[in-house]
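User: Just a sanity check before I run the rest of the batch. Below are the structure tokens for the first item. I only need the designed sequence back.
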């Protein structure tokens, strides 16, 4: 098994939006939510994208989602996500994240997505991106196959750090050799668990913390159509790494220069 892993937050780190709210319109088309709920979801996502995800904002989002999904049929949710995955996710994946995932795989590291969004959304996205493992929130499901509105496990803040430690123990990762990427100060505990943390498109508080700790601050801003790109960067990364890692070093230098100019 790989001796190290790269842990990625999902929303605003790998993709440019909230993964949960990105599926609002397909969920509405499938009869799960009303038009007013779609508009409210859009507004909530706007606040999230503009204002960042501090503890208060994340708690409001958690409460909103708990109320929103109560009574949804789980099989219908999974069917909608599977049927619209490429349509919804492809346009909002950062090219820089795709390249980093490919580089970590080429270097022999596992790629792990750690997200506060629900597993029924995050796991298909993780499979699409080629992640080796996914840690995500789990919604409670009743005997009737519908969400109860309760959250059985919330992968958030310190719980993300605990999940990283548990997976490292299970898989034999050396955390000092591991990498982690996130945009939010709420993920500071996860970032502090690894030897190579980076802030990606950080909110104000995480940018401040990264500066104090001398962590890299990366800027991802180029969405890419995923399907034609997934194999390309992986093959290229494997080739350049076997040739001595010149392109990998160039990518990292480019990201650092871009971050320095932001």
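Assistant: Here's the designed sequence for the first item:
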């Amino acid at each position: 098994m790989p001796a190290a892993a790269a842990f990625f937050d999902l929303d605003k780190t790998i993709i440019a939006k909230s993964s949960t709210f990105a599926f609002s319109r397909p969920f509405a088309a499938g009869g799960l939510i009303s038009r007013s709920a779609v508009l409210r979801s859009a507004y909530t996502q706007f606040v999230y994208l503009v204002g960042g995800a501090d503890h208060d904002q994340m708690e409001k989002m958690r409460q909103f989602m708990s109320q929103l999904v109560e009574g949804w049929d789980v099989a219908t949710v999974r069917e909608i996500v599977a049927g619209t995955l490429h349509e919804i996710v492809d346009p909002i994946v950062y090219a820089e994240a795709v390249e980093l995932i490919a580089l970590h795989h080429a270097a022999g590291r596992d790629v792990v997505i750690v997200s506060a969004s629900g597993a029924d959304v995050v796991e298909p996205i993780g499979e699409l991106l080629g992640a080796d493992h996914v840690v995500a929130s789990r919604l409670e499901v009743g005997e009737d196959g519908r969400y109860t509105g309760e959250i059985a496990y919330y992968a958030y803040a310190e719980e993300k750090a605990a999940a990283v430690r548990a997976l490292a123990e299970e898989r034999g990762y050396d955390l000092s050799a591991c990498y982690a990427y996130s945009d939010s100060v709420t993920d500071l505990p996860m970032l502090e668990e690894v030897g190579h943390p980076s802030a990606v498109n950080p909110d104000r508080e995480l940018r401040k913390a990264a500066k104090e700790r001398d962590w890299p601050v990366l800027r991802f801003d180029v969405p890419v159509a995923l399907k034609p790109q997934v194999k390309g960067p992986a093959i290229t990364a494997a080739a350049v790494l076997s040739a001595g890692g010149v392109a990998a070093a160039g990518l990292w230098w480019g990201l650092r220069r871009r971050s320095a100019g932001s």
